[in-house]
Amino acid sequence: QGQEQIAGYRLLERLGGGAMGTVYKARQISLDRDVAIKVLSPELADDPAYVERFLREAKAVARLNHTNIISGIDVGDANGVKYFVMEFVDGSTVASLLRRGGAMDEERTFLIAQQMARALEHASKSGLVHRDLKPENVLILDDGTAKLADFGLAKNMMSSGASGLTRPGDGLGTLPYMPPEQIEDALNADHRADLYSFGATIYHMLTGRPPFVGDTLGQVLMAVLKKPPVRPTTLRPGVSPDLETVVLTC
Q: What positions carry a catalytic annotation?
């Protein structure tokens, strides 16, 4: 802690890990502000495909400019350490809020869903498919602002080379928020995959549980592939029919 291991930034504390690396809270010395820095895992840093994917994520997110998306600030290589600097957000994930308080009331769910939809619309217009929308990747600030985070599995639809970073058959994403077509072939997932995950995330917020559950990963996988979800109103009768229709349509 407190070490300037990346020029211009002082690392303060470890915040967590993701699909491709570790995220730290840091201080940007030149502007005297807190930022978040994602560092590519050392075991992946020697793999050109992962390095390229990591850098593509950083450059793609840096193009995004939206209130409801964590913004990118800087990307670089510090003596072999690949890093990506992002906006630091002091908030709670939707996942942690669900763990603490269970299902959310419909009004709060709707307000968060509106913001997630705006974030996905902006990302889609910029050519990005997130491919890992889930409660863990939505941050809620004290003022109620929602921010979409972690584009580590994003696909850049506007880059002809981006698809080569995902092999046919790769099941990138997170069960049970991942659509069947992404499980079977993440290479060809498009914006419809994000709509599915959007619906699955709202489902969890409304009911307090994911749309597909099981005692084992295999059971969850088969449920996603073969079974329709239980209607939200079955688990929580107070859910409005209109919102239920939106969720099930997604």
A: 132
